[in-house]
Amino acid sequence: MSLSSALRAPAIEIAGLTKRYGDTLAVDHLDLEVHRGETLALLGPNGAGKTTTVECCEGYRVPDAGSVRVLGLDPRRDARRLRPRVGLMLQEGGVYPLARPREMLHLFARFHADPADPDALLARVGLADARRTRFRDLSGGQKQRLSLALALVGRPEVVFLDEPTAGLDPAARRMTWGHIRELQDDGVTVVLTTHLLDEAEELSDRVAIVDRGRLIALGTPDELTHADRDEVEFSARPGLDTADLAVALGVGVVELRPGRYVVHGPNEPTLVARLATWLERHDVRLGELQAGKRSLERVFLGLTDDSADDALVTGHGTAGEDTGGRQRSGAVPRGEVGA
Amino acid sequence: MTRMTGTAVTQDRATPLGRAIVAQAAMEVRLLFRSPESLLVTLGVPIGLLVFFSVVDVLPTGDQRAVEFLVPGVLAISVAATGLVAVAIQTAFERKYGVLKRLGGTPLPRWGFLAAKGLAVAATLAAQALLIVVIALGVLDWRPAGGAVLVPVAVVVGAVTCTAIGLLIAGVLRAEATLAVVNALFLVLLVISGVTFDPSALPEALASVGRLLPVGALADVLRVAVAGEGVAVGSFALLSGWGLGATALAARTFRWEP
């Protein structure tokens, strides 16, 4: 590759990426490009192949087929050249239990020729007061923020954030989102994985929805949520008699997940009036009513479900991304999606 | 954080390898001293053995004074404590906690990480050996007849051997299993490898097993050296053989991910 084409190369190029663990196909012929300075969210349920995809980019996994290029380089063969330019945040902490945030950041800073100022970075992620607390004594949120700081201390051009807000309370999540926006302002390419729809919608320039190892949708949040005219979405208590409602409305109704319904009919005043009448007759309080723009959740559930039955499956995701059998059974942990 | 933009970001960046390795080694030494369990094994046990049994002469040490027998043995035990026990336990838990994986994602290369580990062992061991020799010479009236060159050489070879065995165990077993195996092994080495007392007091079969183990071989090399009797060629060859075997095996079996 010539110098000029290297300069113009996308930040990340994934072509035909395939990775299997035993009988499980974790990633299945995935193609994806991430532009320089772009933030891309890999969105999908647990076991969708998000972590495997990211770990192929990070050089932790060798693809069974296909190719991965980060900054025009091979993550494994060119690791020596790539590592100084990439920052990463793994799902596991990866920090010595007895180490303190300040010394960890200083240690990682010593791995780079021109690092960020560790103490300033520590203050920026709100860990100045905890700088001498042993890692094992930090709260979950503090551990996540240290992990983020460790990803940034080398002034990376590309950062991979694997579930950066997992286990954080809403305030801590907003804080982390703020840090990610600062990265975007600095022109850093960000790839983040999440199973939180609002996180993907809030932070990313483009969303790549993956399920069972396949890329099933790719676009800006606006593109993905741009609605068909003939669809109205509403929320109410779960378990409504959708068959009866469908008769009343004269169009199809599906309960996407408990309490979330899609009416497959034109967004016209008469339809809305009939819906209101039916709700009144059954004494059902309306939660949300949405038309003209689909929620990302609707997009997501509509894309990842093979049948209406599937949409009703709830359950709690376990750790063990990419290793569980969920992706085969289709029993996706709906409870976490759109939380 | 200020950032570079435009074309500047696409250039290769050099990694300050020397600085990175020294920083990583310093971190490992700090963590060793921060853990009371590790300190007890690496410093407490060897020095406690040396002082106690030099003062209280109850061990069968042949026709030598206890301290003459103990110093080389305690040096060998220190090598095993720092190189084998501490390295194995520390590394096994580093893998369990994902530290090895995380470090693998930094510019510090794997060989740099292993070099840092070796450097940390060397620094710790140098401090230990110095402490032991100073206590022996100054307090316990130890009078070695030789070994000024051979002892450091043997300690280095022994340290490489023990570190390789430590990494081998840590690379294959779960962290908890490593902890158990290594502590048991340490106890066995302490008892049957003739490091604290003359193995001829043991049943012959047990004594010969002890002599074939790396720590027994190291103790023998050290004892012959400080007695001013030159190189114990057989034991030195045995020790080196253990080192080469363990290194080759560790290189093949070591795992970095949890």
How would you characterize this protein structure?
The complex is a heterodimer of chains A (339) and B (258). Chain A is of the alpha/beta class and 339 residues long. Helix content of chain A is 34%, strand content 23%. Chain A contains 14 helices and 13 strands. The radius of gyration of chain A is 22 Å and the shape is globular. Chain B has one domain (17-253). In chain B, helix 2 runs antiparallel to helix 3, helix 6 (150-172) runs antiparallel to helix 9 and helix 6 packs parallel to helix 10 (233-253). The A-B interface holds A 6-7, 58-60, 71, 79-81, 83-86, 88, 90, 92-99, 103, 106-108, 110-114, 116, 120-121, 124, 150, 152, 154-155, 157, 182, 186-188 and B 1, 3-5, 7, 9-10, 12-16, 19-20, 22-24, 27, 30-31, 34-35, 93-94, 97-99, 101-109, 257-258.
Any idea what the CATH superfamily of the largest domain in chain A is called? P-loop containing nucleotide triphosphate hydrolases
* Uncertain residue ranges of chain A: 306-339
Largest sheet of chain A: 6 strands, mixed
Helix-strand string of chain A: HEEEHEHEHHHEHEHEEHEHEEHEHHH
Kindly report the CATH topology of the largest domain in chain A. Answer: Rossmann fold
User: How far do the termini of chain B sit from each other?
Assistant: 33 Å
- Domain unit count of chain B: 1
User: Strand pairing plus helix content of chain B: what structural class?
Assistant: mainly alpha
| SS strand fraction of chain B | under 5%
Question: Compute the gyration radius of chain B: what is it?
Answer: 20 Å
| Contiguous uncertain segments of 5+ residues of chain B | 1-9
The helix/strand series of chain B, from N terminus to C terminus, equals: HHHHHHHHHH
**β-sheet strand percentage of chain A:** 15-25%
Briefly say what this structure is.
Chain A has 339 residues and is α/β, with parallel strands linked by helices. Chain A has helices spanning 3-8, 50-58, 79-82, 101-110, 118-124, 140-152, 170-185, 197-203, 221-225, 242-249, 269-281, 296-304, 308-311, 326-329; strands spanning 12-21, 24-34, 39-43, 65-70, 86-89, 158-162, 189-194, 206-211, 214-219, 232-235, 252-257, 260-264, 288-291. The radius of gyration of chain A is 22 Å and the shape is globular.
